[in-house]
Amino acid sequence: PPYSLFSLVCMGCSSSRDAETPTATTRASATTLPCSERCMRDSKRTARSRRHSRRIDVPSSLTLRAYEELGETSELRAGSLQQLRSELATLVEQRVAGWEDLQRALEQCDLWLVRFLRTRKYDSARALHALRGNLSLSRYLEGLPARTGGAKPGAVAAVRFWDLHIEDSSVRYVLDRRLLATVPGRARDGSVVVLLSPSSDFLIAWGRLGVGGFTLAVLKLIEALSLEPRTQLCGITVVVDLRRASSALISTSLRPDMLRLTERLASLLGSKAAFRVRGLWIVGAPWYARALVNLVRTFLSSKLRSRLHLCSAAEDLHAAVEERLLPAGFGAGGGADEGGAEASFEECLLALQRRESSTRTSLRSSSSSEPLVWQRPRHELSPT
Fold first, then answer.
1. Predicted confidence band at 67 (pLDDT cuts at 50, 70, 90)?
2. Could you please report the per-residue DSSP string of 1-46?
C-alpha cells in the first residue's frame, strides 16, 4: 500500500514505525505529510539499497571466503555502508576541504562505496581515509602541470575524474593502443589481471594526454574492473611488462616530477586503493631499468613488497595466470575458448560478468521463483 513507504519503511518516523496497525488517520498523514525531508531521503535510500542488494552480494561459492577474510555478513555490510554515508554527509555539511568531491562520492551507488569497505575489512574509519586519499590523488592528477613528464605546455586540456567514462576520448586512446589491457578470465587466485606494457607509446600518450590525464584514464579503467563483487573480494593482479621499455621512457620516468607521481601512486596501492592488490608482477626489466625498479620498491609498503614479483622470463607469470589467457608474447597462443587474449577491454569485461553470472545461476535452485537477472548488459538479457 502507498502509506507503507513512510509509515513502515522509514526509520525516522518513530510514531508510525511503532504502530502495529496503522489507522486511517496515520495512513493519510503518512501518505501526504512525511515526518521530514530527511525521512523521505532515508526511505528512498532504503529502497535503493534493497534494489541493489543482490548486485552487491558476492557469488554464493565465495560467501564463506568473504566471511573468513573480511568478516562480511549482510548485516555488517548494510550497517557499515550506512555509517560511511553518514560520515560523508557530516563532512559535506561541515564544508571541509574538498567537500564537493565528497558530495559526488555520496551520490554514488552502494557498489561504488562498498569497494573501500571491503578493502579495509569493513573498518569504516579506514575506508573513509582511503576514499579521501583517492579523491585527493584525483585532484593532484587534475592539477599536474602540462609539462610534467616532458609534455608541451598548453597542449593538454584539463580533465576531471568525475567526468571521465569508458567512451571518453582519453580513455579510448589508452584502450585503442592497448597501453592497458586485461584478459577474458581470472588469475589462479580469482583476481582480475591488468596488463600494463610501457613502451615508447607511453611517451606519445603523455605528450598528447598529459601525464595526469593519462593516469586518470588508467585509474578509470581499473575502477570499471573493480565494480564487480567477485573482483572486490578476490582483488586485482597487476602485470607490468617492461620488455619493450625504451631508455628514453626510463630516463623520463626518473625525472623528479615523475618520481613524485610514482610515489603518490605507490601510496595509493599501499594504503588507499579501492581494490585489493593480490600481486604486482614486473616482467623482463632491462638492465637500464633496474634503478627505477629499485626506487619503486622503496616506495611500496612492506605488505606490497611481499607481493612484488620480479621475473626475467614471461613464462614465470604462468604460476599466477593460466597460459591460455595471456597474449602471445607471454608464451601463449591466445586462448580461443575464452574469446582470445587479444580481445578488447569491453569484451573482457563482459566475459568476466558472464563468468560470474553463470557461476551464480548454476548454484541457484531451479525451483526458486526469484527471477534470474544479474549484472548482464541489457541487450544480452533473455526473455526468460
1. very high
2. -TTHIIIII-TT-HHHHH-SS--HHHHHHHHHS-S-HHHHHHHHHH
- The 10 Å Cβ neighbour count of residue 256 is 7
8 A C-beta contact, residue 148 and residue 211: yes
What global pTM score does this model have?
A: 0.75
Determine the Cα–Cα distance for residues 215 and 372; give it in Å rounded to an integer: 38
| All three cell numbers of 291 | 634503478
What phi and psi values does residue 47 have, to the nearest 5 degrees? -65, -40
**Residue 147: how many CA atoms within 13 Å on its side-chain side?**
2
Answer yes or no: are the C-beta atoms of 60 and 97 closer than 8 Å. no
Q: What is the dihedral of CA 331, 332, 333, 335, to 10 degrees?
A: -170
Show Cβ contacts of residue 79 under 8 Å, excluding neighbours closer than 6 positions: none
Query: Is residue 304 a contact partner of residue 277, using CB atoms and an 8 Å limit?
Result: yes
